[in-house]
Amino acid sequence: MIIRRRTFLGSGLAFASLASTALLPTRAVSEVSLGEARLRTVSDGNLILPESFVIGDLPEDEAVPIVEAAGYATDNLEAPCNLALWEDGDARVLFDAGSGSGFMPSAGEIVGNLEALGLAPDDITHVIFTHGHPDHLWGALDDFDEPLFLNAQHYMGAEEHAYWSDPATLDTIGAARQSFAAGAARRLEVLGDGLTLAGAGDEILPGLSMVSLPGHTPGHMGARIVSGGESVLIVGDAIGNAHLALARPEWPSPADQDPDQGIATRISLLEDLAESGETMVGFHLPDGGIGRIAAAEAGYSFRAL
């Protein structure tokens, strides 16, 4: 049975609720227990996205009402960043590394929020990257450009690693994302032998295997955790938000590098999750990002646990 709990981080302490306290700011943390192990999401803060990254070339008269109905502004949209932390025995596995201090001032909070849970970067044993975008990879290095998670073995999909390591990517990714390519290449070079390449189906640890979810980036990957008779799917950015990606999954996402592949992956993933009822974790989904997908009258809905 999956046991759920949502708590809050504030001023370095974890609170079961916000009753009778005015301590701010706080960061939502979601948690599920699977047998003897547990999965938590830890906030890295949030991104502030321009309208071009939310709406892009989509029909404004249809897209804007969907975004606003979900409670978001279409410009300067705040997208939460949920890093999943899997703890099983001596293993502490962090899915993605956050933004670090070099991407957006509203993000890069993973170290402080781990400390609020009584953990330090040195306590992390494995870091698994879903893909190489700044909010997922750049936090792998500290402010001195050295690996932050010193005791961790790092993993990335082989196709994803090849893409970001290829010098030609800088010229083909488009001017708006050239900094993404340069930043990813530098961090992957520093990680060097501390990075292991993986493929779909590879088992990183007992019960933890990689899943191919391409489109957002060429080699974007997720991971499935099976423990205690239950399973959880880490989807990264394959479901990139709780508004347009759910209401109109057949629409291209401005955030996807291969929009057509992103559509195919998203539709298939949503269909499977709605049918199976499997618990999932979305990096940019609300309320900590742990929940389930259900079919709705139009598209799909996300219900946080």
Radius of gyration: 18 Å
Total helical segments: 9
Counting helices, strands and paired strands, the structural category is alpha+beta
Pattern of helices and strands: EEEEHHEEHEHEHHHEEEEEHHEEE
Number of strands: 16
Low-confidence stretches: 10-26
Can you put this structure into words, describing what you see?
This protein has 305 residues and is an alpha+beta fold. It is built from nine helices and 16 strands.
Structural topology:
Elements: E1 2-10, E2 13-15, E3 26-34, E4 37-49, H1 51-54, H2 60-69, E5 77-88, E6 91-95, H3 110-115, E7 126-128, H4 134-137, E8 153-157, H5 158-165, H6 169-172, H7 178-191, E9 195-198, E10 203-205, E11 208-212, E12 221-227, E13 230-236, H8 244-247, H9 259-276, E14 279-282, E15 290-295, E16 300-304
Describe the structure concisely for a colleague:
Helix content is 24%, strand content 33%. The protein is of the alpha+beta class and 305 residues long. The chain is globular and about 50 Å long.
Which properties best describe this structure?
24% helix; seven-stranded mixed beta sheet; 305 residues; alpha+beta
